[in-house]
Amino acid sequence: MGYKVAIVGATGNVGREMLEILAERNFPVDELVPLASSRSVGREVSFGDRVLKCRNLEDYDFAGTDFVLMSAGGDISKQWAPRIGAAGAMVIDNSSAWRYHEDVPLIVPEVNGHVLDAYMGRTNRKNIIANPNCSTAQLVVALKPLHDLATITRVVVSTYQSVSGGGKEAMDELWDQTKGIFVNDQPTPGKFTKQIAFNVIPHIDAFMEDGYTKEEWKVLAETKKMLDPRIKVSCTAVRVPVFVGHSEAVNLEFANPITPDEARDALREAPGIVVVDKREDGGYITPVEAKGEDATYVSRIREDVTVENGLAMWVVSDNLRKGAALNTIQIAETLVARGLVQPRVAA
Ligand code: 11C
């Protein structure tokens, strides 16, 4: 017997990836229900070889639904996740609404999937599990084996984030501006505060009082919550004119000595990671190659000679997959594999 799975936000960038990945990985789905706001009711989405019509979130009865994968923004998640969880369905939420809540686990299965055992053993749980921000997900996958080996004390990361992280409108803006520049059109800012075509913008999400942006703060707060609260993190998040795939230049400081070879070996053994690190032209991964792939790629592993026990590296992943839809589905797969969620039958 399989599971009844609903997707809230099925027509968005991440929702569509969720549909594709569920089918691709043969997640045991008995029934798939795409849900959307009243505006998108009736819109069609593909699931495997089937075409399904979106139903209205407002009047859907969650009794008997096992998993609800949400990617419709923080406001919808704040409003709906507690109600859906109270109805007994397991919510896996891709927004930032619940990530920092102390009663909600924030999960990357390769890093802290074991946390789910204790959470599911609690009778007073909210039935909400949070999926991290895309730039954090790929970072912690790469940090975990190195932290286990030599204890990371400090991370300095600069991100090169693709426009798909900002949604479909942001992708359209890059496309339109790029075409427009060839015919001398003046770029009109929309989702981005500055021209994104042929440019880079050191600003993602709102500015905070300390001068960091919310995106940068998320990387810090989520790394601490999932990996180790003692790790110090400083992030500069930058938007680049790439459609899909986030890249990160990462500098690490460790409590104990670690060589690039030791790091490379540990990363090669670690789940979810592919090391592509030849010290030659093209011996590294770029976002174009990571698009559509499940792995987090690590390249350019070398000593950071500016600190005592330091390493530098380059980390790339498909932000719509490991950074969002894939990780969400891997959380559901972990719950199933550990026997923590059984199919329910509608009352
Ligand atoms: C971006 N990282 O690239 C953002 C998108 O908190 O889930 C994801 C925002 C989030 O714009």
Instruction: Name the CATH superfamily assignment of the largest domain.
Output: Dihydrodipicolinate Reductase, domain 2
Structural class category: alpha/beta
Largest sheet: 6 strands, parallel
CATH topology of the largest domain: Dihydrodipicolinate Reductase, domain 2
Distance between the termini: 17 Å
Mean pLDDT across all residues, rounded?
97
Uncertain runs:
none
Number of domains: 2
**Largest sheet, spatial ordering of strands:** 5-2-1-6-7-8
How many runs of DSSP E, i.e. beta strands? 14
Which H/E pattern describes the elements?
EHEEEEEHEHHEHEHHEEHEHEEH
Bound molecules: (2R)-2-aminohexanedioic acid
GO molecular function: aspartate-semialdehyde dehydrogenase activity; NAD binding; NADP binding; protein dimerization activity
InterPro entries: Asp_semialdehyde_DH, Asp_semialdehyde_DH_beta, NAD(P)-bd_dom_sf, Semialdehyde_DH_NAD-bd, Semialdhyde_DH_dimer_dom
Catalytic activity: L-aspartate 4-semialdehyde + phosphate + NADP(+) = 4-phospho-L-aspartate + NADPH + H(+)
Family: Belongs to the aspartate-semialdehyde dehydrogenase family.
